[in-house]
Amino acid sequence: MTARIVRTSRSAQVAMVVAALGLIVLAAAPWWAGRADLRLLGEIYLYLSLAMLWNLMAGYAGLVSVGQQAYVGFGGYLLFALTMFAGLHPIVAILAGGVLAAFLSVPIAALIFRLKGAYFAIGTWVMAEVFRLSFAQASSLGGGSGSSLPVDVVKSLASSRSGREALSYWLALGAAVIVIGCVYLFLRSNRGLALTAIRDSEVAAAGLGINIWRTKLEVYVVTSAFTAIIGGLIFLQKLRISPNAAFSVNDWTAFVIFIVVIGGIGTLEGPIIGTILFFLLRETLADLGTVYLIILGLVAIGIMLKAPKGVWGLIRSRFDLELFPLSYRVQTDTADKGH
After folding, report:
1. What share of the chain has pLDDT > 90, as a percent?
2. Helix extents (H) in 117-268
3. The pLDDT value given to residue 11
4. CA atoms in the 13 A half-sphere facing the CB of 67
5. Helix or strand run (H / E) with residue 274
6. I want to staple 312 with a disulfide (CB 3.0 to 4.6 A). Which of 40, 146, 151, 269 is the partner?
């Protein structure tokens, strides 16, 4: 009998095949789905991306932020500003917004990283409010009432409405695939291993020579950049922006935290499960008004009490499944011996 260390499993291999086939089907959605379905699917992809990014930051780096709406709104407003005043193509403007968000996040991190625990969370929310109030003063972008994307900018995406909707859908799908792929590859790398060590024990990680501050900074900067890009895609779909919509803590942070918590924080599968459950609940219960939000809260409390590691944590502990092969496993092989 021989033993070897592996980082894959049969369930992960099957999941990858199913995911590839599913991706092909979803990529062809503009030819088989209706207009409302495309918008809903695009929204699902964007929320999944935000959940993946928040999970990387909070679930692995221990940076529990309640102010990620700052970068969602920043990316959205940069889309409007760069297309309206700099004449950039919307896709270029979205990418430029991500780059600018990365640069901006460095001094912000230098400030809020001085805070710990609940103070860090409050600090991120305060920074988001600073962003909101700042953009509310920009009269050229509509001030407090907001602004709509000019018609010529919208038509630069595609000449027809169906073409624009298809492109917007593919951009959202592509963003989700890229975010999931980048997070997965990052966690598979040596830096991802360091981040996992930090998640398990900062004291032990520091003892192993891991630069905790720099590792967290890298995660914060990358997460901020991607979040701004997702924000640009969100408001490219909406075609209108305002300070309250762009920097909504309810839409871009509270719901994202709910998704990650019920799915399973600190796992890649958790945000996927959580996004599916969130949209099932939303589409089923949204007509109930405020009762819908109460039910979401009760669901979150119930899951945290019965399954602290989320739905995926419950599934993994019962069936020993891992769809994204990140952990190390010992595999034993029994060699046949002739008689």
Report:
1. 68
2. 118-136, 151-155, 161-188, 190-200, 202-207, 212-238, 243-246, 249, 255-263
3. 80
4. 22
5. helix 269-285
6. 269
Here the tokens at position 234 are: 């969100």
- Cα angle for residues 126, 132, 135 (degrees, 5° grid): 140
β-pairing verdict for 147-148 and 2-6: unpaired
The whole-angstrom distance between residue 328's C-alpha and the CA centroid of its chain comes to 25
In angstroms, how far is CA 327 from the centroid of its own chain? 22
pLDDT at 326: 75
Question: Tens digits of per-residue pLDDT, 302-320?
Answer: 988 888 889 998 988 888 7
User: What is the pLDDT averaged over residues 319-332?
Assistant: 74
- Top pLDDT among 75 and 193 is at 75
| Euclidean distance between CA atoms 253 and 251, whole angstroms | 6
Tens of pLDDT, residues 61-110: 889 999 999 999 999 999 999 999 999 999 999 999 999 999 999 999 99
Cα distances from 17 to residues 13, 22, 171, 172, 208, in angstroms, run 6, 9, 22, 21, 37
- For the beta carbon of residue 111, count every other beta carbon within 10 angstroms: 10
HSE (side-chain half, CA atoms, 13 Å) at 209:
0
Q: Specify whether the backbone of 248 is left (phi greater than 0), alpha (psi in -120 to 50) or beta.
A: beta
- The pLDDT assigned to 1 comes to 60
Burial of 15 (0-12, 13-18, 19+ CB in 10 A): middle
Q: Which pLDDT score, from 0 to 100, does residue 332 have?
A: 67
Asked whether 260 and 303 are in contact (CB, 8 A), the reply is no
| Residue 25 tokens, joined | 């089907």
Whole-angstrom distance, CA of residue 268 vs CA of residue 12:
12
Measured in degrees and rounded to the nearest 5, phi and psi for residue 255 equal -65, -35
For helices 269-285 and 35-55, the axis angle rounded to 10 degrees is: 140
List b or e across 41-78, with b for residues whose CB sees 16 or more CB atoms inside 10 angstroms. Answer: bbebbbbbbbbbbbbbbbbbbbbbbbbbbbbbbbbbbb
Question: Computed from CA positions of residues 93, 99, 104, 109, in that sequence, does the dihedral angle turn out positive or negative?
Answer: positive
- Contact between residue 165 and residue 38 where contact means Cβ atoms under 8 Å apart: yes
